[in-house]
Specification:
Blueprint lengths: L8 H5 L7 H11 L5 E2 L14 H11 L7 H4 L4 H13 L14 H15 L8 E4 L1 H13 L5 E7 L4 H9 L2 E6 L10 H13 L3 E8 L11 H13 L3 E5 L16 H7 L7 E6 L13 E6 L3 H13 L5 H11 L9 H27 L4 E2 L8 E6 L12 H23 L1 E2 L1 E2 L10 E6 L4 H23 L1
Parallel strand pairs: 1-11, 3-4, 3-5, 5-6, 6-7
Antiparallel strand pairs: 2-8, 7-8, 9-10, 10-13, 12-13
Helix pairs in contact: 2-15, 3-5, 6-13, 7-8, 14-16, 15-16
Length: 473
């Protein structure tokens, strides 16, 4: 029988805090009858967001195409839905249960290219688009392709979504962390980037790519046009590829911010030498179809022989799941004005986005009224990265940096676990995403229903004040 000593050491090193021990404890408490408010993960439909009728209606017809042959049954569907399902069915002769082309179904790749062109006003090549099982598989494919040895380094933000740190650890590469500028709405700072990469280079690491999440996870920040230009110029200076994680591009809630894709900005400034990997997903935005695991990877400025290696890599897994590909198609080809399903689609879309905006405001305003707690008002995405203060229970002046890190990690984990036990609120410690030494954070979503977000703020205030008082004793 194998034991831990027989397990890949890279797997033992990899951590994924979003579904870590606090979540496991939350599930145990839930089984015992305790009400849990799950704010640990961006999983909209698990938190009562309803699926879009448009997507589920089309899928129902494609999963059981006998309905397409029954005129009486089709009367239950809007006309444009029935016609769209028929059109897809004829372009998918083997149905949803058969493998597709490795890079994805051709008409869907073409639709993604047209979506990008319409979004950004720039050309997009369907041959440079690969359909993936969510954005995560696209990220992992890009890391796999660029990784030559353990000294190859990937610049990742601190804080960051732990997909990046876990995957880099799992594949045996090197992490180059760069701190986001918390005092400047979590934008990227050129001086910090330069210090991070120069330190890595001096340590013998070979930087190959910089990863950027926009809008931000876990910060909820939306990068400005100027900030993106700076990042592109930085990448060019150091000969880095860019990973643009843009899965929250529909989730922008403030009027003084807007989503700018890296592809559009690169085109505007005439940059054609940097390889760009852009990732999008059906899991976020207002679609929220996490379980269907659909998404795409677009690659710009890449030689055909390198692109062929990406296709080969995808072929090793045969293809992305077909339902996920179809949901991706439906995401990029919504109903048009005049379609029978259009009004319902717009009502559902706007209802979801407006609800998220309202909940972001409730959460942001409520948290900032709690003494010893601070959070930027979430500009986008689905999260707030909340800074909180606690009295020290040990003398940190005598600690080594490693001891201080362990001490602070234990403190935010203990805090979040105590919060869960007392209030039923399940969040993720900031140490699971990375944070500046000497600071404490936790990440929370604002996906639960409005009444639960309001309840969360009230419970959190009472808990935090009580926890601080106990530490003072």
């Amino acid at each position: 029988m194998i034991s831990l000593k027989d397990v890949n050491p890279n797997l033992l090193t990899a951590e994924y805090a979003v579904r870590g021990p606090i979540v496991i404890r939350a599930q145990e408490l839930e089984k015992q009858g305790k009400k849990i408010i799950y704010c640990n993960i961006g999983n909209p439909q698990a938190l009562k967001q309803k699926p879009l009728s448009y997507i589920r209606q089309v899928l129902s017809l494609l999963e059981y195409p006998e309905l397409l042959k029954n005129d009486e049954q089709l009367k239950n569907y809007p006309c444009d839905i029935a016609e769209k399902a028929k059109k897809i069915y004829h372009q998918l002769p083997h149905g949803t249960g058969a493998y597709t082309q490795s890079a994805g179904i051709p008409f869907i790749r073409q639709a993604v290219a047209e979506f990008i062109t319409k979004r950004d006003g720039i050309p997009a090549d369907e041959n440079h688009i690969i359909l993936t099982d969510g954005a995560s598989k696209g990220v992992q494919a890009a890391i796999t392709t660029l990784l030559k040895n353990k000294k190859d380094g990937f610049m990742i933000p601190i804080p960051q979504y732990p997909l990046y740190s876990a995957t880099i650890d799992l594949y045996g590469a090197s992490k180059i962390g760069y701190y986001l500028d918390e005092n400047n709405s979590w934008q990227l700072n050129e001086q910090i980037l330069t210090e991070s990469i120069e330190k890595a280079i001096s340590a013998g690491i070979n930087p190959v790519a910089i990863c950027v999440i926009n809008p931000g996870n876990p910060t909820g920040a939306v990068l400005s046009f100027e900030n993106i230009v700076m990042i592109i110029n930085f990448a060019k200076k150091y000969n880095l590829s860019i990973f643009a994680d843009e899965v929250y591009q529909e989730n922008v809630y403030v009027t003084n911010a807007a989503f700018h894709s890296f592809a559009k900005v690169m085109n505007k400034i005439g940059e054609k030498d940097i390889t760009l990997f852009s990732f999008h997903s059906v899991s976020k935005g207002f679609t929220g179809e996490c379980g269907h695991r659909g998404g795409y990877l677009e690659i710009r400025n890449i030689p055909n022989e390198v692109l062929a290696q990406f296709i080969k890599l995808q072929s090793i897994s045969l293809c992305a799941n077909v339902d996920g590909q179809l949901v991706t198609y439906l995401m990029v080809t919504p109903p048009k004005k005049g379609d029978e399903s259009y009004d319902t689609y717009i009502k559902e879309r706007d209802g979801i986005l407006n609800d998220l905006k309202t909940k972001a405001q409730i959460l942001g305003e409520g948290l900032n009224k709690i003494s010893g707690m601070k959070s930027d008002m979430p500009q986008g995405a689905m999260y707030a990265f909340v800074k909180f203060e606690l009295p020290h229970t040990a003398d940190i002046t005598s600690m080594t940096p490693e001891e201080q890190l362990a001490y602070e990690t234990q403190r935010d984990c203990d805090y979040c676990l105590a919060m869960l036990e007392e209030t039923g609120i399940c969040v993720v410690p900031g140490s699971g995403f990375g944070q500046k030494p000497g600071t404490l954070h936790f990440r929370t979503t604002f996906l639960p229903p409005k009444d639960e977000i309001e309840e969360l703020v009230v419970k959190l205030k009472k808990f935090h004040e009580g926890y601080v008082e106990k530490l003072k004793v």
